[in-house]
Design goal:
40% of the residues lie in helices and 9% in strands. The protein has 244 residues and is α/β, with parallel strands linked by helices. Strands 3-4-5-6-7 form a 5-stranded parallel β-sheet. It has 10 helices and 7 strands. The protein has a single domain, classed as Metal-dependent hydrolases (TIM Barrel). The longest helix has 15 residues.
Length: 244
């Protein structure tokens, strides 16, 4: 599916606002990806929030990121397994600082799983809740979302959102019984204002709405369901909600 086909599919199925994520898997391609994302966001107006990408450590990464923010993109997306970055490195600190100055959020896949020999690095060496806590302390004004509830350290990340108001978690693929989690995730144990729905669509091995159905069947209050479904995301990405 092309990006336009993805957006049209979701919007035609009742999704009111789309967060579009991307990441550069090698140096030298981020500007092209960001330009394309900016064009798509202009095409779809206030229905799509596009996230920028850079390859951490590449030349002029902070300049590339600032250009994307100047063009209107809504934040930074990173994936430690693919991009093989150390979240506590100096070049990452410069990216966090750029996000802080521009008041833009960061979405990072920094949970240790899923681990694969296809990656060029070991996520168990690069990723941990303990390493992220240093970032949360040093950059308290930067909003950070960790994908997949921080799997496989879900308990550690659940404790972190109790301590830090600049940390959010998303549910992508974790509440659908896809990952090998011993006990089913109980969203009622999580801080209601710091968890948000994530789909990872279209790169998922099951129906696009499976996670939405799981949320509806989670046994949480209507208030919590509204927060998880869209209100927390609106807060995190600074989206102005349209009157229902």
């Amino acid at each position: 599916m092309t990006s336009s086909e993805i957006f049209e599919f979701l919007l035609s199925h009742g999704i009111k606002h789309i967060i579009a994520l991307q990441y550069a898997h090698k140096p030298g391609i981020a500007r092209h990806l960001n330009k394309y994302m900016s064009e798509k966001c202009r095409e779809y107006g206030n229905r799509v929030t596009g996230m920028a990408t850079v390859f951490p450590g590449e030349e002029n990464a902070e300049t590339i990121l600032q250009e994307t923010f100047d063009s209107g993109l809504g934040g930074l997306k990173l994936h430690a397994h693919v991009q093989c970055f150390d979240m506590n490195s100096e070049h990452m600190n410069r990216l966090y600082e750029c996000c802080r100055i521009n008041r833009k959020p960061v979405v990072m896949h920094i949970g240790r799983e899923p681990k694969s020999t296809a990656y060029g690095c070991d996520p168990y060496q690069l990723c941990s809740a303990e390493k992220l806590e240093l970032v949360l302390k040093y950059f308290p004004d930067v909003k950070i979302c960790v994908s997949h509830l921080g799997f496989d350290e879900t308990s550690a990340y659940r404790k972190l959102i109790e301590k830090y108001d600049n940390l959010w978690l998303d549910t992508a693929m974790v509440i659908t019984d896809y990952f090998p989690i011993e006990e089913k995730v109980n969203l009622g144990y999580y801080r209601t204002d710091r968890i948000m729905y994530g789909s990872d669509f279209p790169n998922i091995p099951y129906a696009w709405d499976r996670e939405l159905k799981e949320l509806n069947a989670a046994g949480i209050s209507e208030y919590a369901l509204e927060k998880l479904s869209y209100k927390n995301a609106a807060d995190f990405f600074s989206i102005k909600l349209q009157p229902v």
